[in-house]
């Protein structure tokens, strides 16, 4: 690991990049009754980590490894069939871009911001931000993998009034799996962009569109 | 990078005074305060009072709906393209203070798509007495409380009451009905705020929102005077 | 490509390849100059309801693929040709004598102005089986492709095997859609609230080439509680559905196929 503290800054839940307003699909799962307890949350997070989390981690690792971010952005589009999730990914990418340019400014970030003024997919921006912070592909993958589970865990604490100690214990127990996903992502990022993982979760795709149409909701996604 | 000119914030991530094209950006006024104190009604009244004079837009921060934005749309205080709702993930104070990125984007998009603008009103979701706006998001902030929420609020203080550029005590017409002591509220507010101004307001009786609108106009004038021209030594871009 | 992985092969496993090529017959119909295959994937020309299109039905020993088998299928609808490929029965992924997963590789190619409907029957992942399938499609600009892809997790009341299925589509030489499902025991979190949530059938209907439609803008919309229609970033429409069983899954996808009028 090239800069442990920089990675902590990047992966901090308080890093001001808009994540706090998103539940990673957890709000829809709670409403559908699929997440009611800490053990449901653990299975939800495990599924998300190995699907959307792995895909995001691989895109982030590939961006950190120096693959063309616009090619990766197109690959992210192909891996995100839900328009609601594409909008979310680009919105979060734009917010992360702002924070990244304030914290670790650099020409790669400037170029992507100019090419995608309304936002590139968040994992691509995350990978470039990591690169700009002097971090490597594994670090970027680790940040993406962790974020794929920390976001629903934080949201479920608010949605279910779940004991925050239990929710954090869920994350701690998933930590070895998140490390493994990050290693897979880093390995995949050494190959061609079209071979990057495309793991997906049908319920996340289906419920994202339902959630986007709700009139009353706590989270933006 | 950009060492050759005076811009303190060359990136567009903070409240830089100029837009990318070199124009001065709009003054951003935050309105915060507890749930039910009348923020949305005040914003609606301000829009009606100021829309003929200024090019203005509104960002709302709802807690779990887009109801405030929907109210403003229904009341037709501004055209729809000048009203944007930000979703706050159950934490309205986070979206205006700790992580302002969604609000900044909303303000910038309004400048891009409905601009040029003179004034943007950013209304927070109803929150607690500690919720204040980040200086990275707004230039001045108004804290709105109301007499029915308890006449001890000014005495209790908190960052909103003590540090806002203007404290509005709303719904003064209700004071006799809820037994609130307006004079006591004024004394307590002065003790907490020193020289910072306090405005007692009732939207249902004359003069309504006009004193507040006058205060906002003064802020707009001061903003224009301070950042008058690209050579005023602020964040000007080289010609 | 389909023969790429070089692992020791069990003597009991099967390697089979089938190929179908459709071209315009010059009289407003479609001819099949190439139609080859045997064993587990045997293509037969069958009667087509659409006079412009040829129809091929995959028949034969549908108990394959067994673990360790390698099946490959190449289907081309050349410029101006119209082809529909369907199946006579569900495909069962069964356990074999080897721990090596079975591989099923499908390559679809559609030329400019070509039409290809790829509508096989369901794939049923039987307890103890291991199957990796990858469908790759290359659609030229102006071509149209319909893909129906249904996976059923176990026979009635049975625990499923391990199934990994990837669908990769390029349109006009650019990536359009890429998605992989990894389901069954051993796939982490597959039955949790993010992935299947207790459902035992999952399917997709993909319609590529929607820029040829003269309808209005394509909007996402839910189809009940457990399915959704989504426009992709490129010219394509995807229906994603989960269901308790194969029958209800097919009902949702059939409904979607009807309203899209393809």
TrEMBL record, chain A:
Keyword Chaperone in record: yes
Keywords of the record: Chaperone, Cytoplasm, Nickel insertion
InterPro entries xrefs: UreF (IPR002639), UreF_sf (IPR038277)
GO molecular function, one term: nickel cation binding
Domain of life: Bacteria
Major localization listed first in the record, in broad terms: cytoplasm
Compartments where located: Cytoplasm
This protein's GO CC annotations: cytoplasm
Subunit structure, as described in the record: UreD, UreF and UreG form a complex that acts as a GTP-hydrolysis-dependent molecular chaperone, activating the urease apoprotein by helping to assemble the nickel containing metallocenter of UreC. The UreE protein probably delivers the nickel.
Function: Required for maturation of urease via the functional incorporation of the urease nickel metallocenter.
Family recorded in the similarity comment: Belongs to the UreF family.
Name this protein carries in UniProt: Urease accessory protein UreF
Gene: ureF
TrEMBL record, chain B:
InterPro entries: CobW/HypB/UreG_nucleotide-bd, P-loop_NTPase, UreG
Gene encoding the protein: ureG
Pfam families, sorted: cobW
Functional summary from the UniProt entry: Facilitates the functional incorporation of the urease nickel metallocenter. This process requires GTP hydrolysis, probably effectuated by UreG.
Lineage: Bacteria, Bacillati, Actinomycetota, Actinomycetes, Kitasatosporales
Residues that coordinate or bind GTP: 33-40
Compartments reported by the entry: Cytoplasm
Protein name (database record): Urease accessory protein UreG
GO biological process, one term: urea catabolic process
Source organism of this protein record: Streptomyces qinglanensis
All residue ranges annotated as the CobW/HypB/UreG nucleotide-binding domain in the record: 29-199
Cited NCBIfam families: ureG
Top-level taxon of origin: Bacteria
Subunit architecture: Homodimer. UreD, UreF and UreG form a complex that acts as a GTP-hydrolysis-dependent molecular chaperone, activating the urease apoprotein by helping to assemble the nickel containing metallocenter of UreC. The UreE protein probably delivers the nickel.
GO molecular function, one term: GTP binding
Principal location: cytoplasm
Keyword rRNA-binding in record: no
Record's GO cellular component terms: cytoplasm
Family: Belongs to the SIMIBI class G3E GTPase family. UreG subfamily.
Stored HAMAP family: UreG (MF_01389)
Keywords per UniProt: Chaperone, Cytoplasm, GTP-binding, Nickel insertion, Nucleotide-binding
Automatic annotation (TrEMBL), chain C:
Subcellular localization, as worded in the UniProt entry: Cytoplasm
Principal place of residence: cytoplasm
UniProt entry tagged with the keyword Chaperone: yes
GO molecular-function term, one example from the UniProt record: nickel cation binding
Keywords, in A-Z order: Chaperone, Cytoplasm, Nickel insertion
InterPro entries for the chain: UreD
GO cellular component entries: cytoplasm
Region Disordered: start-end pairs: 29-50
HAMAP family (alphabetical): UreD
Subunit text: UreD, UreF and UreG form a complex that acts as a GTP-hydrolysis-dependent molecular chaperone, activating the urease apoprotein by helping to assemble the nickel containing metallocenter of UreC. The UreE protein probably delivers the nickel.
Role description: Required for maturation of urease via the functional incorporation of the urease nickel metallocenter.
Family named by the database record: Belongs to the UreD family.
Name under which the protein is recorded: Urease accessory protein UreD
Organism the protein comes from: Streptomyces qinglanensis
Encoding gene per record: ureD
